[in-house]
Amino acid sequence: MKSIIFSTIFIQAYSIIVPSKDCFKVNTIYNRGHSIAQKTAAGPFECQEWCQLVRRCTHFSFTSASQTCFLRQGDRSEPKLGVVSGPKHCPPATLNQVQAKPVCNGSLCLGGSTSKNSGNVMVDDKPVCDDDWGLEDAAVACRQLGFPGVERATKESEFGTVSSSFSMDNVRCRGNETDLKDCYHRAVDDCDGNEAAGAVCSMAAVEIPDECKEDDQICLLGGKNGAGNVYYGGEPVCHNGWDFPDANVVCRALGYSGASNFTIRSHFGLSSTHFSLSNVDCRGDENSLAECPHDVKREGCEADTVAGVVCVGSSMERVRGVRGNLEIFLGVSFAVLVLLIVVGSAVVWKIRNRKLAYLQKTSNALPRMAFKNPI
What we know:
Blueprint: H1 2-14, E1 25-30, E2 35-40, H2 44-53, E3 59-63, E4 68-72, E5 77-87, E6 103-105, E7 108-111, E8 118-123, E9 126-127, H3 135-144, E10 149-154, E11 169-172, E12 184-186, E13 198-202, E14 218-221, E15 227-232, E16 235-236, H4 244-253, E17 259-263, E18 308-311, H5 315-365
Antiparallel strand pairs: 1-5, 2-4, 3-4, 3-5, 6-7, 7-8, 8-9, 8-13, 10-13, 11-12, 14-15, 15-16, 15-18, 17-18
């Protein structure tokens, strides 16, 4: 009888509904004895939702016996009956998709994505923290892995939550290194599983002529003569703050009288490398982009954010000029036709009114005659 009662109490105390999320671990506890907050919750799903509202939380553990939710920093796990644990965010669902095999070169790997050219960056089987991570760093990683270029740098574990034990933090590359470990970095970190750095590498590179890679050299790539994306010293210029005065400086530096238009959003094609300048703010009378105020930090600049120009006298402008003249001619012709129709209608209406007035006047001038029927 005692054993039956004990079994009943034991089962009731540790009975647990297995959650449907694949990222939840049953009968597992994270960072036991080190919680940053706790409260009563209805279940592991509510516990995860609470974790998502707390910035410091990276993982959670939910105890079914006491209906208590514990918020954690870290995923050091150990078995614990009746506990469900999980990350702050579950990786995106990959229904009908197969996760690509990680691409590696020595100690550097790119993995966690469904495509081979993107993923979280791993060094020595540990993630890299996203503090200070940018396009220069991602470019070095992509080049080291054999890709021709880079499209964008990712942060906040875009390709899935990672371990809280990191290999590198505060990575700061110049962009021309051949190994990510050659870049300045710190071996210690203060990051959690939702702060993994990543990269989306390009599958094709933009061909940049050698003469365009010289210091302070301006080139237009992707378009025709006098039009294209702006490259400065062999690297694209970001479109943040880009407008007519900046385009005028570029066109005049290339020998044109000025700019007829400026473009943004990589109008002449995506880039495949990191950027040289951002937030360029020219007055319009400078001789070079180097004389214009600009930022060396390129936050928010990616492959689809390249600035461009259309210079006065360019082949693109001539095509647009012919098209514009044709549109003007057709517009004027249509306006003249409408005017002729309106004037013609007015003349016809006036002539008709004159005839009606004449007939009415003639009718009034005739003598009136009365006729009677014979009896």
